[in-house]
Amino acid sequence: MFDSSFPLSNDDLDLAFTQGQFAVVFQPKLSLIDGRTLGVESFVRWHHPELGTLLPGEFLSFIGSAGRLPELTDLMLHEAARVVSHWRSQQRHWTVAVNLSTDDLDNPHLPKHMCDLFTAYSIPSDTISVDIPEAALAADPDRRLAALSELRKKGISVTLDAAGIDLLPLEKIKAEHFSELKIGGASLIKFAHSVRHSRKGIVAERLEVASANGLSVTAARVEDIETIKPLAQMGFSAAQGTFFRHPDTQEGLENWSSDWLMPVLLGERPPRADTIARARADLADPDLLRLPDASEPSGLNEDAMPADKLEMVVH
Asked: How many other CB atoms are found less than 10 A from the CB of residue 169?
């Protein structure tokens, strides 16, 4: 979360946009059915010339207070379109998800702007999806749900990131507004699995409503093999998280493969540390390369921390 004492200024922000200091990294989303990479979620890094590489929690609130989140969203959407076009030329049919803020939801021109991007880059409308933190729908939900319906009418996939909170009534979680439901992190999923036979709790209820409305369900912030194994039988169709790969560059993902996942899930191959290390090689964030000792608690992925989502300004 942004600290007002952090030495960032509007001049820094101007230079970041004009000099291309913002960079986009991607975290893959994998199928729990066949292990394929289905797509990626995009995150932003600020390569500050004096402060080094800044993670989203260190600057998003500042950008929001400066009223420039829409500008950052535009950058992320353009980069998503560029990457999708490039990957399709390589026969990689991966989708790219972009996180939206409340400012973006309140922008009546967003659907047309996205359609213009699809035309400019010659890509289908379902190749870029948008992730909406549930907290963004806490205020004026009907108007913002109507905005999501407009995106859906254009063929754009919309993901509701529940992040373990229960703000949106179940009757609002339907295909008119969403195409996917994202639930995480690891502790919430493990608890849901422990009580799954009772069919009670926020996760069980949302899995049921997603199934009834034809929505796919992705487990987010997956950090260990124990979290992954029960996901498919619980109703999840995909997963993403640091167990598979930290956010990486476009080039890094092009040299990466998820072929190891299904043998691990089927018990044909142990989830050894060297397997995970290879999956995490060539990271965009070198400080995340070190694997924790078995006695250490696993750290949160700052890109996907619920606090970031609750700020409703995550990119």
From this structure: 9
Are 136 and 105 in contact by the 8 Å Cβ rule? The answer is yes
Pair of tokens at residue 299: 């750290």
Tell me which residue of 252, 253, 273 sits closest to 264, measured CA to CA.
273
Mean pLDDT estimate for the chain = 82
| Spatial distance between the Cα atoms of 262 and 241, rounded to a whole number of angstroms | 16
Whole-angstrom distance, CA of residue 311 vs CA of residue 6: 18
- Contact assessment for residue 70 and residue 104, using Cβ atoms and an 8 Å cutoff: yes
Residue 50 lies in a domain: no
* Cα 252 off chain centre by: 17
Alpha carbon distance 144, 14 (integer Å): 30
pLDDT mean over 9-21: 96
The predicted structure's pLDDT at residue 70: 93
Q: Which residues contact 146 (CB under 8 A, 6 or more apart)?
A: none
Tell me the CATH number at 193: 3.20.20.450
What is the pTM (predicted TM-score) of this model?
0.82
100 phi-psi bin (left φ>0, alpha ψ -120 to 50, beta other)? beta
Number of domains in the chain: 1
